[in-house]
Design goal:
mainly alpha, single chain, Helix Hairpins
Length: 201
């Protein structure tokens, strides 16, 4: 049995199709805007990360110089990788307010309360600056991750509207229009038959 549709239903469906298409355009524009902002943010993060790494290297070099000045290390001159790792441990201790004594930590380069005193005296401000820069960098990365998730969410929504929802409504509209066309043809055929009968009578 053929399903019967009303013209009101067809008009309503066409209006819905138009509204959804407009909504899709708005979402697409939003995705484009977010991608531009995202790329700008990634560029900013890269710039901040480069600056952070430069500060980290400078602080590492300063600590190495302090250690060398006070003859507090016995390592080869090229042991820079381990030295940088030590600086990161120091930063973690400082962040957690545990930079009271370095004796409990196994530093191959920096050892003893004397180093803790020298470090706090000569590099405390730089440590704070580096920590603040690291926190700002972390916040930017979090912001970028949130933005990336939003871009992916909106893109999935656009894809659903474009590939699933709108084609489905379009098929329904086509089905209704075909049904109306068939109905008109049937009615026209009935009229012709009625006219023919009237003529024969």
């Amino acid at each position: 049995m053929t399903q019967r549709f009303t013209k009101t239903e067809l008009i309503k469906l066409k209006n819905e199709y138009t509204s959804v298409k407009e909504a899709k355009k708005i979402l697409e524009e939003r995705v484009r805007e977010l991608r531009v902002k995202y790329m700008a943010l990634i560029k900013q993060i890269k710039h901040r990360a480069d600056a952070y790494n430069q500060k980290l290297k400078a602080l590492h070099d300063e600590i190495m110089e302090i250690a060398e000045r006070y003859m507090l290390f016995e390592v080869e001159r090229d042991a820079r990788i381990q030295g940088e790792a030590d600086v990161r441990v120091v930063l973690n201790l400082f962040m957690n307010k545990q930079l009271l004594s370095l004796q409990e930590v196994n530093f191959p380069i920096l050892k003893g309360d004397a180093v803790s005193s020298i470090l706090k005296k000569n590099a405390q401000d730089k440590l704070k600056d580096l920590l603040n820069a690291g926190k700002e960098l972390d916040e930017l990365v979090k912001k970028a991750n949130i933005m990336e998730s939003e871009i992916e969410r909106l893109s999935r929504k656009v894809g659903y509207l474009e590939n699933v929802f709108l084609p489905k409504i379009k098929r329904q509209i086509k089905q209704m229009e075909n049904a109306f066309s068939q109905r008109r043809r049937d009615e026209l055929q009935k009229m012709k038959k009625a006219i023919k009968k009237g003529g024969e009578a």
